[in-house]
Specification:
By secondary structure, the chain is mainly alpha-helical. It has a domain at 23-90. The protein has helices at residues 6-20, 23-56, 61-90.
């Protein structure tokens, strides 16, 4: 007979691992993800803008533009996280999309 596709097996393992986690650990992991993702996005924009300005000699314009784009991206991610947390709080979280991506 045919064996299961490797992605199906890994999906089964991730479902088992997720089901074994306590709700506290799952929520703590989500909150830690938000805590690192949002400032990381903004700091990443600052670093990329700084190095582009140094390389191209356009100081401070690319730093400002790239940081503004990073702030906008962080805001979009924050809205998606807020929607995810609102759905989880309501208890209407579906299995088809349980991440904020």
């Amino acid at each position: 007979m045919l064996k299961n596709h490797p992605s199906e097996e890994s999906r089964d393992h991730s479902n088992i691992r997720r089901d074994n986690q306590t709700p506290f650990l799952r929520r703590a992991g989500l909150y830690l993800g938000v805590a690192f993702e949002l400032p990381g996005t903004i700091l990443g924009g600052l670093v990329v803008g700084y190095f582009l300005d140094n390389y191209l000699g356009t100081s401070p314009w690319l730093l400002i533009v790239v940081t503004a784009i990073a702030f906008a991206g962080a805001f979009v991610r924050l809205v998606r996280w807020a929607k995810l947390f609102a759905h989880e709080r309501d208890g209407s979280r579906g299995d088809k999309n349980n991440s904020a991506h």
